[in-house]
Amino acid sequence: MPPLTNLNSFWLIAMTFIPAIAAVLLIAFPRPLARVVALVATMITLLISVKFVAGIVIAPAEWTASVSADWIPIVGIKFLLGLDGLSGSLIVLTNVLMVLSVLGSWTAIDSRQREFYFWLLLLQTGIIGTFLALDLIVFYIFWELMLVPLYFLIGVFGSVNRIYATMKFFLFTFAGSVLMLLGILALYFQHRALAGSGSFALADLLTISDKIDPRLAVMIFTGFMLAFLIKVPIFPLHTWLPDAHTEAPTAGSVILAGVLLKTGVYGILRFAIPLFPNLSVQVAPLMIALAVVGIIYGALTAFAQSDLKRLVAYSSVSHMGFIMLGIFAFQKEAIVGATLQMINHGISTGGLFLCVGYLYERRHTRELKEFGGLAYNMRVYATLTVILVLSSVGLPGLNGFIGEFWILVGTFMTHKIAAVIAATGVILAAVYLLRMVQMTFFGPLDKEENKKVSDLDMREILTLVVLIIFAFWIGLYPRPYAQALEPSAQHIVEVVGKTPLAPIAQK
Questions:
Q1: CA distance linking residue 25 with residue 336, whole number of Å
Q2: What is the number of structural domains in the chain?
Q3: How far apart are CA 268 and CA 277, in angstroms?
Q4: Which residues of the chain have pLDDT under 70?
Q5: How much is the pLDDT for 1?
Q6: Which domain, by its residues, includes 319?
Q7: Is the pTM of this model over 0.85?
Q8: Closest by alpha carbon to 104, among 349, 365, 360, 459?
Q9: What tens digit of pLDDT does each residue of 140-170 get?
């Protein structure tokens, strides 16, 4: 690999691999220091990512930083990384949630700490690499790297039924990954046949994607979409998610809901739609229908849950439906709203999983019927949880409102009925989440176990307050976030607008 040519490239490499290097270094540190090493590594990575995204907001550009180097030239594999507003925003979200996950696990993980933080840090590198990779083989390597750490985080550190949940998660996501790999290889051979040399670089593949035989293009596109839709997950490919959330440790649930689901949406935006815009427009009605069904189904199923974690997990199915609806509306406002909602969902749902984890540490149960009246002796906890609930509901002034509003406005331009039906999901979210608040915090404090529960300590308060600050910031002043995300949304609109089947509003 040739030397890096600029400072931004160096920092991009550093941001990607600092967590993995720290994971390896954990072997040399005493076990009690494992969480300290993990906290330092995640904070350094966060600071680097904030530097990049601040630069994007101040001076928007197509690529703020990039790395290009021959890796395995004999088969056309290059180590290509690139950071823009979309990937940069998601990386900052990843790194914020990683820091908070380490802090949130400070006392929850009291054995095998070195192993736990090793897998958590390795997962961070996998996620960052997935958001940066612009060579499809490099993307696939990082994509698969995410799978292994989460497998062990759930399978080793999860709850009673962790093996079942881990195997289900692994089989679903691995099956999709294999289909995507076949699609990547097919694109490589098509590039070699049409351009005279094989390449896995996204920029090269974009030049020949419209020349591929239509039947082969459908097969490749299907492979990519299935891999990404399983990861989202969209209804009816969502069944692995509630089990994985229920059995995962708190940090696993925070990262799974807050970031990993977004890698599927990111893959659609970065690869599937630009490579196959015609096919993307053709499947848009189906995707919108599934998104609307997912919104309603996820909300109704969340209402029926008695386990706090499963309730929040099914709320993710509903919220991810909103995001998919915004993407396939193919309107600028809707896509900006959908990409912003990816960040909003990470903040609100990541925070709710932290809240559930803190309560579980104290009561060792997640059953709603076991609570009641906790607002009397857990006032700080109740206050912070209610704010995060209102963020998830979409209360004006908090982050969830602006994202859902833009999605519904953009969707209404071309799919009025879908937008109206989806809007009922906002009402249903208020129903099941406020019911959760009522059952947990209000009513009589009549159980002895609940009377003995202590309020949050300063470390726990800090983790939730950080997310709440972001919730108010985005809700009251979303401009910097929209400015970072708008170029990617505009690019998708332009790509789709060139197709013969583009939505009427794009013509």
A1: 40
A2: 1
A3: 11
A4: 1-7, 57-65, 501-507
A5: 33
A6: 283-507
A7: yes
A8: 459
A9: 999 999 999 999 999 888 888 888 888 898 8
